[in-house]
Amino acid sequence: MLSKGLKRKREEEEEKESLAVDALWLDPGHAAVAQAPPAVASSSLFDLSVLKLHHSLQQSEPDLRHLVLVVNTLRRIQASMAPAAALPPVPSPPVESSMADNLLASSDAALSASMASLLEDLSHIEGLSQAPQPLADEGPPGRSIGGAAPSLGALDLLGPATGCLLDDGLEGLFEDIDTSMYDNELWAPASEGLKPGPEDGPGKEEAPELDEAELDYLMDVLVGTQALERPPGPGR
Amino acid sequence: MQNSNNTADIISTVEFNHTGELLATGDKGGRVVIFQREQESKNQIHRRGEYNVYSTFQSHEPEFDYLKSLEIEEKINKIRWLPQQNAAYFLLSTNDKTVKLWKVSERDKRPEGYNLKDEEGRLRDPATITTLRVPVLRPMDLMVEATPRRVFANAHTYHINSISVNSDYETYMSADDLRINLWNFEITNQSFNIVDIKPANMEELTEVITAAEFHPHHCNTFVYSSSKGTIRLCDMRASALCDRHTKFFEEPEDPSNRSFFSEIISSISDVKFSHSGRYIMTRDYLTVKVWDLNMENRPIETYQVHDYLRSKLCSLYENDCIFDKFECVWNGSDSVIMTGSYNNFFRMFDRNTKRDVTLEASRENSKPRAILKPRKVCVGGKRRKDEISVDSLDFSKKILHTAWHPSENIIAVAATNNLYIFQDKVN
Predict the structure, then answer these.
(1) I want to staple B270 with a disulfide (CB 3.0 to 4.6 A). Which of A17, B131, B252, B283 is the partner?
(2) A200 touches chain B (CB under 8 A)
(3) Would the CB atoms of B190 and A37 count as touching at under 8 Å?
(4) C-alpha dihedral, A25 to A31 to A37 to A39, nearest 10°
(5) Contact yes or no for A72 and B263 at CB 8 A
(6) Are the beta carbons of B90 and B102 closer than 8 angstroms?
(7) ipTM of the predicted structure?
(8) B261 or B378: which carries more pLDDT confidence?
(9) What is the overall mean pLDDT for chain A?
(10) What residues does the SERTA domain cover (chain A) (predicted)?
(11) Which of A1, A63, A120 has the CB atom closest to B202's CB atom?
(12) Which residues of chain B make contact with A232, given a CB cutoff of 8 A?
C-alpha cells in the first residue's frame, strides 16, 4: 500500500520499476496516448495481472468481483498483445524465460481455456457450498452422490415456489452441480487447456503448441487450486 | 470514538434509522453498535443532541463451512433498519452468507413479588407459601436488549453485498455477486430468487452484481448495478424471475479516457435511490453520477470525486486500491450528495449550487465542536500552504462508509475503526 508520503522503495520487486514506466505510458497526459489508448500493453502489466489472477484463485473463497475484473482486464491486455501471440511458439523451453513469455507463446485459445477452466473450477466449488451439513454425510462417499446432495438442499431450501420460477424445470436446479471436477484427469496433458471433463478429444490438436514448461505452469496453478479446494474424503 | 488498532474494530457499515434517532454501525468483528441521540433538554437549547452508545451486541460469529473447509467471515457487510412500528426497533444485519433480523428493545421495569420463586429466581417449596400476592412491576435501570428474531440462512452461494427493505415493510431483498433473493420477514426457510445472472457455463462469466436497492415508494421496483458500470431497473410485476430488465442505464465510454483499467473504474460500488424516488445515484471509482429514471443513455450529473487519481491507475491497480468500494449517500432533501475518498477525505456536492467541498475526518483536525476546514489536493505545480499533494495521500486511510441523517444536517463518517459524527454549526 502506498502510505503517507512514502515513495515506492527501490528494493521492491523489479516490476514496480517497470510499472512506473507503465504508469507514464498509460498516463493520458502522455503524448503517445493523448489521442488513442496504448496499442500494446507491456508484459509487466500482463505479468501483474496473471499474478493477481493466480493470487485471487488461491484464496479459499475468491472475491468473485475482483476475479472477474482481473480476468477481463487480462483479456483486454492479451487482446492488445495478440500480434505477439501469433509468433511461432518457442521450440524448446528457454530455461530463464519469464512466465509471460511462456504464456504468450501458447495459443490464445489455450490461455483463454485455462482461465476459463479456472473459472469453471471456481463454480464447482461454489456450487457445492449450499448443502446443509447433514446432507453431505448421506450416501456413499462416492463423488457423484456428494454432487447430488447439494441440489436436494437447494430444492428444500428454496421451497416449492421456486419450481414455478424455473423455466427449465428440474434441469436448472442441477446447474450448479458438475461432477466433472471429480472426474477430470489432472495429469492428462492432451486436453485443450487442461479443461476438466471427459471431452479430451477436441483438445488434442491444440496440444502440440503447448510446451512442457507451459503445461507445468498451468498444471501447477490448477493443482494448487484443486489441492486447496479438494473436499473432505469419505466418512465426513 | 474507539481508538484501537484491532482489525475487528474496523467499521464496515453505517446507517441511520428512519427518524435519525438511532445510528447503527457494524464492524469486521461481527458486532453491531447502536448510538442514540440525546433528547434535547430544555435547559440546553443550544446544545444539539449528541449520540451516545445505546446498545452493543454480537450479530454474527465466524462460521465454518465444512464442505469447503473454509471460514465464513463474521464481518457485517450491511445494516438496514426497518421503520418503527412499535416500541421496539428492528434492523437487518448481514455478513457474506446470512441475514439476521434483530429486535432492540428497552426494559425499564421488572416484575417483583413472584409467589413460586424467590427474589433470586429459585423455586420455593410450595408448602411454605401461606399467602398469595400479585407481582408488581418496579422500575429498574434502563436495559437495552438485542435479540435475534429471524435468521435467513443458506440462500446465497456467493457473497452478499446488499440488503434492502421493501416499502411494503413485509419483504426485503438480499443480493450476492450473481443472484438476488426476495424474502418475507416471517419466513426464514425459503426465499424467491428474482435475479440470476449466473451463466450456464461459468467460463462465460464476465459481470457480477455489485449493489441492489428497492425503490423507496414502489414496492415492485428495484435496481441493481454491475461490475461493468451498468444499472438495471426491474419490475417484479413483469415476471417472477426478473432476468429481463425494464430499464437499462449505461453511459457510453469516453474514448479519450480509455485505458486497460476502464472497466475496473467503471465498476459501480454503490447505488442509491433518491428519497424522492426520481433519481438514482451511482458511485464508481472516480466519480459519482446522478441518473434520471426517465433517461437511460447517460447520467444527468457527474461529479469528480478524485480525478487526480486517473493518472495513478496503474499503481492503484498494483496495490489493489482500484478495487476499493466506496459508498455514496443523499441528504434528506436530495440536494446534496456525499461520498468518501482517501486520506480520510470525504466529499460533498451541492446539486443546486454545483459547489463541492472536501473535508477530512481525523482526530488531529477536529476537536469536539471545532469547525471542519475544507481541504484541497494539489494536482501539480506549486503547492499552496494548506494543500496536500497527490503523492502524500495516505491510501490506507479510506472513507468507504458514510451516512446522512434523514432530515437534518448530521453526518456519520467511518474512518477505519473510528466513527465521526458531524453536525451543522449552531448559530
Answers:
(1) B283
(2) no
(3) no
(4) -70
(5) yes
(6) yes
(7) 0.91
(8) B261
(9) 54
(10) 38-85
(11) A120
(12) 66-67, 69
Chain B residues with CB-CB distance to A136 below 8 A: 66-67
Residues in B touching A165 (Cβ below 8 Å): 192-193, 240-241
| Helix, strand, coil percentages, rounded to 5, for chain B | 10, 40, 50
DSSP, collapsed to helix, strand or coil, labels residue B322 as: helix
The partner residue sitting opposite B319, judged by closest CB among A1, A71, A136, is A1
The reply to whether B136 falls in a domain is no
Cell of B200: 450456464
Nearest-Cα distance to chain A for B236, in Å, is 12
Out of A121-135, A204-218, B395-409, pick the least confident: A121-135
Which residues pair with residue B53 across a beta bridge?
B35
Task: Say if residues B179 and B197 touch (Cβ distance below 8 Å).
Answer: yes
With respect to residue B252, please indicate whether it lies within any of the assigned structural domains: yes
Asked if B286 is an interface residue toward chain A (Cβ–Cβ < 8 A), one would say: no
Instruction: Look up cell 469447503; give the residue.
Output: B68
Nearest-Å Rg of the Cα atoms of chain B is 24
Distance CA B14, CA B150 (A): 21
CATH number at residue B328: 2.130.10.10
Q: Cell triple for residue A90?
A: 518457442
Please check whether residue B356 lies inside any domain of the structure: yes
Find the radius of gyration of the CA atoms of chain A: 22
**What pLDDT score was predicted for residue A121?**
56
Interchain contact A57–B (C-beta under 8 A):
no
Domain spans, chain A: 42-81
User: Is the pLDDT confidence value at A209 over 90?
Assistant: no
Q: Do B240 and A167 touch (CB under 8 A)?
A: no
Is the pLDDT higher at B315 or at B3? Answer: B315
Helices A108-127 and A43-58 sit at what angle, rounded to 10 degrees? Answer: 20
B193–A29: do the CB atoms touch at under 8 Å? no
Q: What grid cell was written down for B409?
A: 444536517
> Which DSSP letter does residue B51 get?
E
Helix (H) or strand (E) segment spanning residue A180: helix A180-183
Bridge partner list, B421: B412
Tens digits of residue pLDDT in B164-206: 999 999 999 999 999 999 999 999 999 999 999 999 998 899 9
Packed helices A64-80 and A43-58: angle between N→C axes, nearest 10 degrees? 150
Residue A119: per-residue pLDDT:
61
Nearest Cα residue in chain B from A77: B260
- The answer as to whether B225 is a domain residue is yes
Place of cell 425503490: B215
pLDDT digits (tens, 9 = 90+) for A58-114: 887 889 999 999 999 999 998 888 765 444 433 333 333 334 333 433 334 444 555
Q: Which domain holds residue B376?
A: 62-100+151-421
Spatial distance between the Cα atoms of B252 and B296, rounded to a whole number of angstroms = 11
